[in-house]
Specification:
With 476 residues, the chain is of the alpha+beta class. It is built from 12 helices and 14 strands. Helices cover 52% and strands 15% of the residues. The longest helix is centred in the middle third of the chain and has 44 residues. The radius of gyration is 47 Å and the shape is rod-shaped.
Length: 476
């Protein structure tokens, strides 16, 4: 279907084709019924030869020098007479006078009996000397090169190609009716389709007025036909999704500067009081926090634009062990502890390594903020590519466990952080086909869980071989 095709034209075209097919099918069925009738009643097939023989007689008409018309058999009619010796034919003008060349037996019988005076379009007859019950003769008013004439045929003989002639004759009689019906039906269909599509045109006008500022509007499908309502409903659903995404983006844009301003203000305050003993470490922590947020936003944007791969083979144990090692100085300075619980088994996940580093780093950073002084943050890696970051702080209320992943959500203004980290972490996990959720830590606190797409055992074996090879090379 081309971009400029018309639904109305397609419907009318299909209707035209369907009517033509129905007409031809009806003609074929009629022909089949005629043949079945002949077979059932054991009547003669010779009637089917009427159309062909009548045409031969019409082709044999010729005008003489005196202006009169006579029948001069053409070679084809002569051959037919040889094939059917009992064949007789006659032609009468509109004044019911026979033309020269007509069979005398037919002329005398038809004039004598008054049959020729009948103005019917066609009729069947028998000569008096023939006592068969089935009619042997056929007369019809036909259009000829010399105007309307009455053509009578008697004792014609059937040929198999007469079946097609019979069908053509039937179609010819129905041609005017067929053309009229088809064009009238097409006009009616065109009008009906155009009228029926008016609700769709009205819906299109509604869509034309929708932009980013009015995505909350919906298309009214009340007057739309039942066949179009699913399409209109799908558009409304798409608009609702776009509106939700646009609202989320507006909130993101409107609050990003405000929320990021908090750590920047803290850094500025520290710079103004550079004599504090912890000045350097505090400044480094704030800079790391800002850098983590910016990097998370960057990798989220790259994944959304498909500029970063989502199908890297990531060694979770090695990756997270390095992250824990990087956080160790900060953990010691904060007077907390961190513990990595990972076995010796290789755990490989499918995803983006930088995104995984951002998510795990963000959860460790949040856990260190929530963990009481002297407490221990636990990072646990399971064999099924499940990662847990456990703290023993205040925990997360069950009613808030879904809201905490919304952008800029904080339980209250006293809650530390920008409210961006968990939202970006959820987006990063979604982009990689993983999951993130929070549960309660036994004894109090929050346990954030990450689920990644795990690799196959074959991949594990290959990576183990690579790791063993690297170790052997290092020892040598």
């Amino acid at each position: 279907m081309t971009s400029d095709s018309s639904l109305a034209r397609r419907v009318v075209g299909h209707l035209f084709a369907a009517q033509l097919f129905a007409f031809l099918l009806g003609a074929a069925l009629t022909m089949g019924l005629e043949l079945a009738k002949v077979a059932y009643f054991r009547t003669s097939l010779d009637e089917f030869a009427t159309y062909r023989v009548s045409n031969l007689v019409i082709r044999s008409l010729a005008k003489r020098e005196d202006g009169t018309i006579r029948i001069t058999p053409v070679p084809a009619l002569v051959s037919e007479l040889e094939r059917a010796p009992q064949l007789k034919f006659a032609v009468f003008d509109e004044a019911r006078k026979p033309l020269v060349g007509s069979s005398p037996e037919l002329v005398s019988t038809l004039i004598k009996t008054g049959v020729i005076q009948i103005t019917a379009a066609h009729l069947h007859f028998n000569l008096p000397e023939d006592h068969e019950t089935n009619p042997l003769g056929y007369m019809e008013r036909r259009w000829t090169p010399f105007g309307w004439l009455h053509v009578a045929i008697y004792r014609q003989k059937f040929r198999w190609d007469d079946v097609f002639g019979y069908v053509i004759d039937a179609i010819a009689w129905m041609a005017v009716y067929l053309v009229a019906i088809v064009f009238l039906s097409a006009a009616a269909a065109w009008f009906a389709v155009r009228r029926g599509l008016l609700p769709l045109r009205a819906a299109a006008r509604q869509v034309e007025n929708i932009d980013l500022a009015t995505l909350d509007q919906t298309i009214v499908a009340r007057d739309a036909p039942l066949e179009i309502r699913p399409f209109v409903t799908a558009i409304n659903a798409a608009l609702a999704r776009l509106n939700a995404s646009a609202a989320r983006m507006r909130r993101y844009t409107a609050n990003a500067a405000h929320e990021l301003r908090t750590p920047l203000a803290i850094m500025r305050a520290r710079l103004e009081d550079a004599e504090e003993p912890t000045f350097k470490s505090d400044l480094l922590r704030d800079a790391s926090h800002l850098q983590a947020i910016v990097e998370q936003m960057l990798i989220a944007a790259r994944l959304a634009e498909r500029q970063a791969t989502r199908d890297q083979q990531v060694d979770l144990v090695a990756t997270i062990r390095q992250i824990v090692a990087d956080y160790t100085p900060l953990v010691i300075e904060c007077e907390r502890n961190i513990e990595l619980d990972a076995g010796s088994t290789l755990v490989v996940a499918r995803g983006n390594q930088r995104a995984i580093e951002c998510v795990v780093g963000n959860l460790i950073d949040n856990a260190l903020r929530m963990e009481p002084v002297g407490g221990t943050v636990i990072v646990r890696i399971a064999d099924d590519a499940m990662v847990e970051v456990v703290d023993h702080g205040e925990g997360v209320d069950p009613v808030d466990r879904e809201m905490i992943f919304e952008p800029f959500w904080r339980k209250n203004e006293a809650t530390p952080g920008t409210g961006l980290g968990l939202a970006i972490s959820k987006e990063l996990m979604d982009r990689q086909g993983g999951r993130i959720w929070v549960e309660e830590t036994p004894g109090g606190g929050a346990t954030f869980k990450l689920w990644f797409r795990a690799e196959t055992s074959e991949t594990h074996a290959n990576l183990n071989d690579e790791r063993s090879s690297l170790r052997r090379n290092a020892r040598s």
